[in-house]
Each structure stands twice: as C-alpha cells, then as structure tokens.
C-alpha cells in the first residue's frame, strides 16, 4: 500500500523524484533527463493528487520519451493549434468554430504558441492552466485544455509529435460560472402576450413552452410541425435538425418529437394561416417544405436577427434590462417552469433533449418538486388560465 504521508529519502542526482507542492496543492514528480548542451538540467514534471497517480504518470512519460526522436524539432505549439483549427474541425458549425478560434487566439497561442512542441513539458502546461484558471470559468477552462490536447493529438497523427504532455496534467478548478437567468412567471405571461401574430411571438412561444433550442428553431420546416391531432397522437413538433454544419442535432437524444401544449398548437395554426395569406398576397407559392421562420428573403434567419427581435419583444413586454437576455434563456425558463410545476428531472431532460440529467440539474433547473406529469400537459396547466380559450370553430387539437 502506498503511504502518501510517509517521508521518503531525498532523490539522488540523476533519479526521479516526487514531492509535495504547496502552491499547487498536489504532488509533483520530476523526471531526470540529464543536462542540455548549455548545462541546464532537463527535468520535465508531472503532477497528481496522490503519489501513486504521479508514479503512474512518470512511467507513462518515461515510455513516451523512449519513443521520441523523429518529430520535427522546430514545430511549435502555435503551429500545432493552427493546424488543428484548420483541419481538425471539419463538420463543425460556424458558432463552434468561432468559439474554438477565439479561445485559441486569446488563451492558448499567446501563452504557449512559441514553445517547441517536442520540448513542451507537463510542468509548463500545469502552470499555464493554473494561470488560466484565474480568469476562466470551469467550462471555458475545459475547452482551452481540450484545444491544446486535441491539437497535439492531431500533430501526433501526422508524425509531428511523439507524446502528449497534456494527458499528464490535472485540470484545476476555474472561476465560478455565471448562473443562467430564468423568466419569472409574471415575465413569462407578459412576453406570451407581446406582439401576438408576429413571427417572433410564435418563435418565443415555441421555445418557452416546448423547450426547443434556438439553433433547432431557425432551420425548422412546416413538415415537422404537426398542429392537428391524429387519433391518439397529439399535436407535436419533430425536432430532427439544427443549424449545425451537417444539419444534425446536438446529441442523439436531441432528435426527438415533442407534444405541443394546446395553446402552442393554436398559435402555430394561426401563424401558418397568416404566413400562407402573406405568400398569396405577394404572389409567392407557400410550401410545407418551407421554413417556419424565414427572413424577408425566404432564407434562414441568423442568430443575430433572432436575438435583436427577441430583445425588442422583451422591451415591449416590460421585461427589465432586455439587453441582458439571450434567446437560450427561454429554454432555461422552460426547464424552470416545468420543475416548479412538479415535473421530475428525468422527464425534463427528455423534453429538452439532454443526454442525461446532469446538465438539466446543474445548469438549467432552478427548483425541484418531484411530482410526475407530462410536459405539454403541465404547460397547459401553467399558462392555460392566462390565455383566452380558442374561438368557436377553431380546431381544438
């Protein structure tokens, strides 16, 4: 059994050593590799929470060092990162590309870009991560570490690196993230009454009462919106696409069909009827294959266009500081409202398309009351009393 607290003898010259680093709050292992031509000791380092973990990392490092020798000596970390950004992200949507490029430009290349990849040591990566942890939250810190790790993996597959020292370094804890905001019940009721009849009203109703992602709404076509009940099948929406580059949803469980609350089905029926009339009035041919929320040119709306209209709607609804809100907060609000109404976390995760309950609980949900109900039924119960009943002759769905 490894005795973590037992003092060991001091390592002799030329031997590997393990010691406690108080500033990093973990054990550090130093591997002795002799001296550089300039007479400086070569001692790459690894770190871990226990001595056992550090010893395992030292063995891995020794194994990788034994295979070194053919990778180009002058290939830099910056070159590796830029090569990965250019060739390793094919198929990603534009927003993901922009995020990775921004993080690499601001948090990886300025600090590590000039370092020779073959000479990059785990200790340098460790120090870099500790420094980034002072300015980045946990999620951003994970992403910048991932950028470096994947860039080196990309270089390894092309014979430009023999080892990946990022795998030898623990991820420190970043700054606490900013919690997502959620609409109050009064605010939600207010925005559901704002700009009724407009496309942004229908867009907001669908996101708030059904929980559809904004990147899933923008490419939505009418063939995936079923506003009429068919036998026992309730009005529903098929969330099968997104604006990701290849059109796929975010995760496998994101591809889902969701029941629409009765008032959502009515809003979407009315909106489609108005859209068909507008097409006829302008001499255009309406098609169910067309977009539900097209721009003035019939093309898919940009995220910026949706955000601008959403904030304008918030202003008309009397929501305080609309400039602080983003469209994704409608999903946060949907989760919070369902949870406050008693829907369990497992059901909410299925409704919003999460691959598990962790994200739902830690990021989106604000309250927990464990009573099982259907999501669409719950939204009818939550907002049903605040909406006018369908007019006589209107389909009930």
Query: What would the CATH topology of the largest domain be?
Result: hpI Integrase, Chain A
Q: List the domain count as a whole number.
A: 3
Element-level helix/strand string: EEEHHHHHHHHEEEHHHHHH
The first-level CATH class name of the largest domain: Mainly Alpha
Total of DSSP H or I helical runs spanning 4+ residues:
14
The average pLDDT value, as a whole number, equals 78
**Biggest sheet character:** 3 strands, antiparallel
Q: What is the CA–CA distance across the termini?
A: 67 Å
Total strand count, please? 6
Give the helices and strands, then pairings.
Blueprint: E1 17-21, E2 26-30, E3 45-48, H1 51-66, H2 77-87, H3 94-112, H4 122-132, H5 138-157, H6 185-191, H7 199-210, H8 214-217, E4 225-226, E5 236-239, E6 256-259, H9 262-281, H10 303-317, H11 329-340, H12 345-352, H13 358-364, H14 375-383
Antiparallel strand pairs: 1-2, 2-3, 4-5, 5-6
Helix pairs in contact: 2-3, 2-5, 3-5, 7-9, 7-11
Relevant terms:
single chain, 397 residues, mainly alpha, DNA polymerase, domain 1, hpI Integrase, Chain A, disordered N terminus, disordered C terminus
Task: Walk me through this protein's architecture.
With 397 residues, the protein is mainly α. The chain has 3 domains: 1-66; 70-178, Tyrosine recombinase, N-terminal domain (DNA polymerase, domain 1, Orthogonal Bundle), CATH 1.10.150.130; 185-386, Intergrase catalytic core (hpI Integrase, Chain A). It has helices at 51-66, 77-87, 94-112, 122-132, 138-157, 185-191, 199-210, 214-217, 262-281, 303-317, 329-340, 345-352, 358-364, 375-383; strands at residues 17-21, 26-30, 45-48, 225-226, 236-239, 256-259.
